[in-house]
Amino acid sequence: MPKILSIDGVSLAFGGLEVLSDISFDVNEGEIFAIIGPNGAGKTSTLNIINGFYRPKKGKVFFQGTDITHLQADKRAALGLGRTFQNIALYHGMSVLDNIKLGAHSHLKTGLISGLWYWGAAHKEEMALRKEIEKDIIDFLEIESIRNQSVSTLAYGLQKRVELARALAMRPKVLLMDEPVAGMNAEETEDMARFILDIKEERNITIVLIEHDMKMIMDISDRVLVLNFGYKLTQGSPREVQKHPDVIKAYLGQKKG
Question: Side by side, which strands form the sheet with 32-36?
Fold first, then answer.
C-alpha cells in the first residue's frame, strides 16, 4: 500500500521543553491511522506539525512524496490536508451551510475582480459549490434538516458534525481529526465512528485520528501509534498494540494476564 504521509525524525521544543523527540512514522493511503497517549504525550503537537501550525526543530514532513516541512498551513490545505479540532472552531453567527462553504474556499478559482461581478463566473462557481455541498456532504452527514440553522443554536454533537462537513468541503486527501468524539454521548459517538468509517471506505480519504475513546480507536483503526511524553512507544495493528505490555499498563488500564 503506497504511503501518503511520512514523518521523518521530527522533534519539537518550546523553549527548553522537549515536546516531541525523533518521531518517525508513515501513513498508508486509504487507512485510518490513530495516535494515542496520555495528556502531554505530544499528539496534538504532531497534528500541528503535519498541517503546518508548528515548524519542527528538526526532521521533515512528506505528503505524497513531496517535502512540505516549510510549506504554510493554507498551502498544505490546498494540497489536500484537512483538519478538525478538539475545540470546535466554527463561526457561530453563521448558518450551517455557510460554515461548510468556507471549507471549500481554497478551491475557488475566481479572484477579487470577477468576484465583484457576482452574476458572472463567481456566481456560477458559487452555485456549483452549493450544489456539490447540498447533494454530497450534507446528505452524507445527515444534516439536511439543520442546514439553514445558525451554528450557535445546535447541540454539541451536531456542531462537531458540521465541523466535519466543513473539513470534507476542503476535498481532503488526508483528514486530520483531533478528538472527534470528545464530550459526546454513546449514540453520538457511534454515529461519528460510522461516519469516519464511511469517509474512509466510500470516499477513499486517509484519516489520521487522535482520540481518548480506546474502544472506538480499537474498533475502527487500521494501525495505531502510541506516544509516551514525546517519544514513540510502539506502533502496530490494534491487536498488536493492545497486547504490548507497556501499553496495557500505561494507556489501556488493563492488567496483564
Answer: 81-84, 174-178, 206-210, 32-36, 223-228, 231-236
DSSP state of 52: T
pTM of the model: 0.86
Q: Rounded distance, CA 71 to CA 108, Å?
A: 20
Express each pLDDT in 139-158 by its tens digit.
899 999 998 999 999 998 99
Helices (H) and strands (E) in the chain, counts: 11, 10
pLDDT tens readout for residues 86-115 = 777 788 888 998 888 887 765 544 444 444
Residue 141 C-alpha cell reads as 452527514
Asked whether the beta carbons of 163 and 143 are under 8 A apart, the reply is no
Domain 1-80+173-257 has CATH 3.40.50.300: yes
How far is the first Cα of the chain from the last one, in angstroms, to the nearest whole number? 35
* Spans of all domains in the chain: 1-80+173-257, 92-171
Other Cβ atoms less than 10 A from the Cβ of 122: the count is 19
Give the contacts of 69 (CB within 8 A, at least 6 positions apart): 55, 56, 59, 60, 61
DSSP states of 131-166:
HHIIIIIIHHTT-GGGTTSBGGGS-HHHHHHHHHHH
CA distance linking residue 174 with residue 71, whole number of Å: 16
